[in-house]
Backbone:
C-alpha cells in the first residue's frame, strides 16, 4: 500500500474518532493534525503538528502565535496559518454571542468571559464591559492599550465611555501578557482610586478582572477591594 493510501486511511480513522468521541479524546498534536487536514490535503500533517508544539510548547501558544511566526514552521503556509488564526477569533465571537443573553452576576462568569476575550493578546489592554441594571452586558470595548507590562488607566476616559453608553455599572479588565494574574499593589491602588472617583459621579465599578499566566482573577472575589 502506497503512502497516499496510508495517509488517506489514517485521516479517515482520525475523522471518525472525532465524530464519535470529540476532541476530548485527542492529544494536542492530534487536534492540530486534524485541523490541518482541511488546508493541507495531500501531506502527512502529523510531523507538522509536532513541529508546531515543539516550537510553541502548548496548544494555546500555537493559536496565539502570529501569522509570521506560524509560517516559519516547515509545512505551514499562509493558508494554514490563516486557518489557525481563525480558530481563536471565531471562539471569541462565539463567547461574545453566548454572553449576550447571560448576566455577569457571579465571579466565574466574569472570569470566563474576559479570559476568552484576552486570549492571544500580546500587548496589555484594558477592556470595559458596560452592564445594565440586571448585570447583562450592553457592550464591551477596548479602551486602552500599551506595551507589554505597561498601560495607562484614567477615570476621565472611563467616565466618558460610561456616559456615552448610558451606563452606570461597569466591570474593567486588563491582561498581563508576560506575567501572572495576581494583582500587583499598583493594580489594587489604581482600582481603589478609580472606584472612589467613579462612584463620586454615579458610576459603579463592580469588579476588576486580571488575566495572565494562564489564569484569571477577580479582584473583588479575592478580597483585594475589601478596603474600598
Residues:
Amino acid at each position: 500500500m502506497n503512502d497516499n493510501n496510508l495517509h488517506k486511511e489514517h485521516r479517515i480513522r482520525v475523522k471518525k474518532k472525532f465524530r464519535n468521541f470529540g476532541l476530548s479524546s485527542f492529544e494536542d498534536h492530534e487536534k492540530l493534525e486534524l485541523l490541518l487536514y482541511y488546508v493541507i490535503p495531500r501531506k502527512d500533517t502529523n510531523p507538522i503538528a509536532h513541529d508546531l508544539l515543539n516550537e510553541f510548547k502548548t496548544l494555546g501558544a500555537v493559536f496565539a502565535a502570529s501569522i509570521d511566526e506560524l509560517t516559519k514552521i516547515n509545512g505551514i503556509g499562509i493558508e494554514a496559518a490563516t486557518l489557525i488564526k481563525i480558530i481563536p477569533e471565531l471562539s471569541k465571537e462565539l463567547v461574545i454571542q453566548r454572553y449576550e443573553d447571560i448576566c455577569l452576576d457571579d465571579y466565574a462568569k466574569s472570569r470566563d468571559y474576559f479570559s476568552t476575550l484576552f486570549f492571544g493578546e500580546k500587548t496589555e489592554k484594558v477592556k470595559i464591559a458596560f452592564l445594565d441594571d440586571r448585570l447583562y452586558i450592553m457592550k464591551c470595548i477596548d479602551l486602552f492599550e500599551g506595551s507589554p507590562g505597561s498601560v495607562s488607566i484614567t477615570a476621565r476616559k472611563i467616565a466618558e465611555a460610561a456616559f456615552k453608553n448610558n451606563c452606570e455599572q461597569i466591570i474593567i479588565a486588563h491582561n498581563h501578557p508576560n506575567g501572572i494574574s495576581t494583582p500587583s499593589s499598583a493594580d489594587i491602588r489604581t482600582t481603589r482610586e478609580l472606584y472612589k472617583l467613579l462612584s463620586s459621579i454615579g458610576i459603579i465599578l463592580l469588579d476588576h478582572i486580571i488575566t495572565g499566566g494562564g489564569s484569571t482573577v477577580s479582584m473583588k472575589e479575592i478580597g483585594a477591594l475589601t478596603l474600598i
User: Anything to note?
Assistant: The beta strands are 124-131, 137-146, 169-176, 204-212, 215-218. The domain at 3-92 is CATH 1.10.150.20 (DNA polymerase; domain 1). The CA atoms of residues 77 and 155 lie 45 Å apart. The mean pLDDT is 88.
